Amino acid sequence: MDGMPDPLWNVAIVGPGGVGGLIGAVLARAGHRVMFVARPETVDALTTGGLTVHSGKFGDFQVPATATARLSGPVDACVLAVKATALDAALERVPAGALGDGLVLPLLNGVEHLPLLRTRFPAAQVVAGAIRVETTRVAPGRIEHTSPFSGIEVASDTAPGERVEALAAQFRRAGLDVTVRDDETAVLWDKLAFLAPLALLTTAAGAPAGTIRTQWRETLEAVVGEIASVATAAGAPVDPATILGMFDRVPAGMKSSMQRDAEAGRATELDAIGTAVLRAADRYGLTTPVTARLVDELSTRESARLAE
Ligand SMILES: NC(=O)c1ccc[n+]([C@@H]2O[C@H](COP(=O)([O-])OP(=O)(O)OC[C@H]3O[C@@H](n4cnc5c(N)ncnc54)[C@H](OP(=O)(O)O)[C@@H]3O)[C@@H](O)[C@H]2O)c1
Question: Alpha-carbon distance 144 to 142, whole Å?
Fold first, then answer.
């Protein structure tokens, strides 16, 4: 229809895990043409069995899935939902030309992937995103969404505002909560300012948030203060009291995905979530001794664990 946006988009989801599987299944259920880009074994599993989602928020449902090991596009949007440790390898599956003029929306935690993506894709197509959710890929194609919420924030310093709004509108129509903000630095650092202390401390202590906010309070306050100062220097003013207030409200049993990865003996996103904060602190001439000590300790432990 003239003047009306196409109600159905072609969307690629790179990494059909906890986040990508959930978002892709919700979009597919709404009728969007979703192409999952995955490792060959996972392509087979998805093509055969589709995706099954268990979610208090979105319901329990199953959708058939179309999947490929290499995107040949074009698409309206390409959601990147791999862990930071797999980003380089996963991008090999997304030739730059294959996207057409589709938008690229990374939902990875961290702040350093945006400049990387803008070296690979036209800057006018790259949108920053952050997702607040707890969701797990329990097996290929099987997603357990355990948080009562799932909120996505998007913003772009380089993509046209109306294209970012169109993306948000399509996702919202499918039932996803999407907020468009006007500052991508704030989108990324607001998330990291809470996540980095949570991830570093729960992993270091091998204990959930409830233990951290009581027995590790002094360290928590130091790390939150350091990371808030880095976020503020990066251009996203963060109030440490607000972050500590969030810590005091989360469920006592809450774990971080870094902690779960470490417990399972997997590589963690320490570089993207912890070391990236130290690199930013360096750039702004800030000292972050407590955060640096934790990152160093976790890095040593991870190297030893992965060498076993
Ligand atoms: N899960 C959450 O609750 C949550 C919340 C907020 C933010 N995040 C962030 O979202 C990002 C994704 O996390 P996640 O928990 O969804 O991870 P995940 O469940 O481990 O899923 C990652 C997916 O990437 C796929 N993958 C790995 N290497 C690949 C490659 N070379 N090519 C194609 N696909 C590849 C994996 O494939 P296989 O299935 O074949 O192994 C898996 O399906 C992370 O940055 C995380 O910090 C996660």
Answer: 7
* Domain architecture of the chain: domains with CATH: 10-181 (3.40.50.720), 186-307 (1.10.1040.10)
Q: What is the pLDDT of residues 244-261, one digit of tens each?
A: 999 999 999 999 999 999
CA of 289 to the centre of ligand 1 (A): 30
CA–CA separation, 241 and 108 (whole Å): 25
Q: Is 16 helix (H, G, I), strand (E, B) or coil?
A: coil
Residue with tokens 């091998």: 206
Task: Give yes or no for residue 129 CB within 6 A of ligand 1.
Answer: no
Q: Identify the CA nearest to 75 among candidates 6, 2, 140.
A: 6
The 10s digit of each residue's pLDDT in 179-207 is 999 999 999 999 999 999 999 999 999 99
Greatest alpha-carbon span in the chain: 61
- Nearest atom in ligand 1 to the alpha carbon of residue 16 is 43
Q: Which residue, by CA, sits nearest to atom 48 of ligand 1? A: 19
Phi, psi of 145 (to 5 degrees): -100, 110
